[in-house]
Specification:
Elements (H helix, E strand, L loop, with lengths): L10 H6 L6 H16 L1 E2 L9 H7 L10 E2 L2 E2 L5 H18 L3 E3 L5 H12 L5 E5 L15 H5 L1 E5 L15 H11 L3 E4 L10 H11 L2 E5 L4 H5 L12 E5 L10 E5 L1 H15 L5 H14 L2 H23 L3 E2 L8 E5 L9 H10 L2 E2 L1 E3 L13 E5 L1 H5 L4 H16 L4 H17 L21
Parallel strand pairs: 1-13, 5-6, 5-7, 7-8, 8-9
Antiparallel strand pairs: 2-3, 4-10, 9-10, 11-12, 12-15, 14-15
Helix pairs in contact: 3-11, 4-11, 5-10, 7-8, 12-15, 15-16
Bound molecules: D-serine (DSN).
Length: 448
């Protein structure tokens, strides 16, 4: 789906009524819209949803309490909540080829915690990837409830190699740790890993040690849906995902599993973990699952990967080292030390922000710097591909990043790049009709 084919703006009604009564919030939303349209969005976990997704999110379903599941609610008046949740579940099942779907998790974190609740008991051992190697907070970080409730043992990636063949998930380590620690659950899935994750060897290792296998597909969910990443559905006992990253839906999570295990995941999410589901978000998930089933979405996902590869090549030409030597998916992890040993992720992120290039600092494997500082940047192509960018723009963006970071102490350089970013964003506007086509444009002041 290209921006131009995204349909009529539901936010027109917001402009014409609801927010007219709250000028302060309207102004903030206008400024955020302006920021999204006039700066580059390279955060690997973000995307631009369609107007249809936003319309469902902004619907009357926000008013409804629907604890329980379709046909089995604790409150009355759920006839249409049942219809929309059933539709979302059926669409998710059909999109991913799953037997059972739970679409109630408020986020990826709740989907993961729900999966643990369903599969293991507090204190049990879980084997997962370490946060600083590319894993996620909910994979047992000591600062997450997951790390406090369960005994996590962590695997990482292989050492870096000059030819880029290193920094891959260390399956020998996974196997050795699984044999030694006898986890009840093995988790695959990452938040900062640029290579394909094959679910098959994880399944084999889990079977060898009698563990369950969970695949956290939060990042590649859209690529999986489009056939651009191997599907873990039917291989893992449970697949958790988010709906707002490469899948391009509303902010939220979901769980896919077998019919046999479905009931235990349902009970873990409600009443185990959450109260009333966000029915407006569930409606928006239904919209997104249908959008992701269209041929245009397959083209989109293919382009996301092609853009990431072009971006990777161009960044390497600019003198950056990429963790794992490149990318197979939508994400790139840049090790800044080859480019400039004194440049930290924090300084780089701040300089790029000033130039209108939005991304996040990220630890690289075995990073000598702490998580708040880091030696890396994480970049992604999901959002700007939605906005219509293709390989030539990725080359241009790589050059803008390099110029910004080389000239980070020179305001003239930053201002020059900012101007070019503005022009590029104007040519690749994610919401070219504006969100308020029927009313005055509420953009706030330009983002510096
Ligand atoms: N915050 C998400 C990300 O950026 O990958 C993960 O929770």
């Amino acid at each position: 789906m290209t921006p131009a084919s995204r349909g009529a703006s539901p936010l027109a009604f917001v402009a014409s009524g609801v927010l007219a009564s709250d000028a302060e919030v309207q102004a903030i939303l206008g400024r955020e819209l302006h920021r999204q349209r006039t700066t580059l969005q390279l955060i690997a976990s973000e995307n631009f949803t369609s107007f249809a997704v936003m319309a469902a999110s902004a619907s009357v379903l926000t008013n409804k309490y629907s604890e329980g599941y379709p046909g089995k609610r604790y409150y009355g008046g759920n006839i249409y909540a049942d219809e929309v949740e059933t539709l979302a579940r059926e669409r998710a099942k059909s999109l991913f080829g799953a037997e059972h779907a739970n679409v109630q998790p408020h986020a990826g974190a709740s989907a993961n915690l729900g999966a643990y609740l369903a599969l293991v008991d507090p204190g049990d051992t879980i084997l997962a990837m370490r946060l600083d190697q590319g894993g996620h907070l909910t994979h047992g970080s000591p600062v997450s409830i997951t790390g406090k409730m369960y005994r996590f043992v962590a695997y990482g990636v292989t050492p870096a190699e000059a030819d880029g063949s290193g920094e891959r998930i260390d399956l020998d380590q996974v196997r050795d740790l699984a044999k030694r620690e006898r986890p009840r659950l093995i988790v695959a899935g990452t938040t900062a890993y640029s290579r394909t994750i094959d679910p098959a060897p994880f399944r084999e290792i889990a079977d060898d040690v009698g563990a369950r296998f969970m695949f956290d597909a939060a990042h590649p969910a859209g690529l999986v849906a489009a056939g651009e990443h191997p599907s873990p559905v039917g291989i893992a006992d449970v697949v958790t995902l988010t709906t707002h990253k490469t899948l391009r839906g509303p902010r939220g999570g979901a769980i896919l599993t077998s019919e046999e295990l479905g009931r235990s995941f349902d009970s873990a999410i409600f009443p185990g973990l959450q109260g009333g589901p966000l029915m407006h978000t569930i409606a928006a998930k239904a919209v997104a699952f249908a959008e992701a089933a269209r041929p245009e979405f397959k083209e989109y996902a293919k382009q996301v990967r092609a853009n990431a590869r072009a971006f990777a090549d161009a960044l390497q030409e600019q003198g950056f080292r990429l963790v794992a030597g490149g990318t197979d998916n939508h994400l790139l992890l840049v090790d800044l030390r080859d480019f400039d040993p004194d440049l930290t992720g924090k300084v780089a992120q701040d300089a790029l922000d000033r130039a209108g290039i939005t991304c996040n600092r990220n630890q690289i494997p075995n990073d000598p710097r702490p998580p708040f500082v880091t030696s890396g940047l994480r970049l992604g192509t999901a959002a700007e591909t939605t906005a219509g960018m293709r390989e030539p723009q990725m080359v241009e963006v790589a050059s803008l990043i390099a110029r910004t970071l080389r000239g980070r102490e020179d305001e003239g350089v930053i201002t020059g790049v900012r101007g070019e970013v503005t022009e590029l964003c104007a040519a690749f506007d994610p919401y070219p009709d504006g969100p308020y086509p029927d009313g005055p444009h509420p953009d706030g002041p330009a983002v510096a």
